[in-house]
Amino acid sequence: MRTHFNIFYILLLIIVAHELSARDFQFWSLAIAEMPLACDWKMETHIGARFENDASRLYFYYGEILFIKELPGKWEIVPGYRLPYRKQENGDWMEDPTALFAIIKKHQVFGLNCLHRSRSEYRMHSKQWVFRQRFQCDLPFKLPHSFKPYFYEEVYFQRNAGFKQNRFFIGVKKEIFDSGQISIGYLDREVKSQRRWNGDDVLYLTARWKF
Questions:
Q1: Strand pairing of 162-176 and 128-138?
Q2: Strand, helix or coil for residue 53
Q3: Is the whole-model pTM more than 0.90?
Q4: Residue 74 in 3-state DSSP?
């Protein structure tokens, strides 16, 4: 088991060191608050911020509210609303209110805890439909200090434009106190612009708290 720990650390360090040496570094942060509601519903509030240019410039932030309904068979439905702001080249901030709906299925693959999420978004200002597919899975071992490694792959499709973005994340998460969780890891984001693909290297930090 210690060998598995060492291999994971080495692979993660190699990936991050290689990618950060070649491209710009970004830092993303996300805070999530979860609250139970009636009839097996719960509500999540998300506040996120993203920094570019070696994590020195805030260029994107957003708030999001999700209502999650648990269904039999480990299914969930998730209507929600998102309000993002992106900094323009002239320094102004542009908002793009977004209505969204997701379906989540939690299951096991070879004994590993996994989930699949299908999410549809309508971005009102830009009048774009975006469809996102995510597969996430816990890895089958624990790291020291109760950290748990996991990964996810997410692809983005835009109506009338096709495959537009791919995100791959690998990192660790840890339960804190009785109701909290933190996670940190490396995210590789590839975005298609016209006929070129441009990549971002991201250090991603998330904090979650259940009330």
A1: unpaired
A2: coil
A3: no
A4: coil
- Counting Cβ atoms within 10 Å, is residue 149 exposed (0-12), middle (13-18) or buried (19+)? buried
Start-to-end CA span in the chain (Å): 35
pLDDT at site 162: 87
User: Among all chains, which residue has been given the structure tokens 């984001």?
Assistant: 189
Pick from 32, 17, 25: nearest CA to 50: 25
Distances (CA, A) of 63 to 33, 80, 137, 142: 12, 11, 26, 32
Three-state SS at 7: helix
Q: What is the rounded CA–CA span in Å between residue 64 and residue 57?
A: 22
Report d(CA 27, CA 29) in Å as an integer.
Answer: 7
Contact present, 155 and 165 (Cβ < 8 Å): yes
Measure the CA–CA gap between 52 and 30, rounded to whole angstroms: 15
47, amino acid identity: I
**DSSP assignment of 33-57:** EEEE-STTEEEEEEEEEEEETTTTE
Q: Are 170 and 183 in contact (CB under 8 A)?
A: no
Q: Would you state the pLDDT for residue 58?
A: 96
**Which two tokens mark 201?**
């290297």
What pLDDT, on the 0 to 100 scale, is given for residue 133? 97
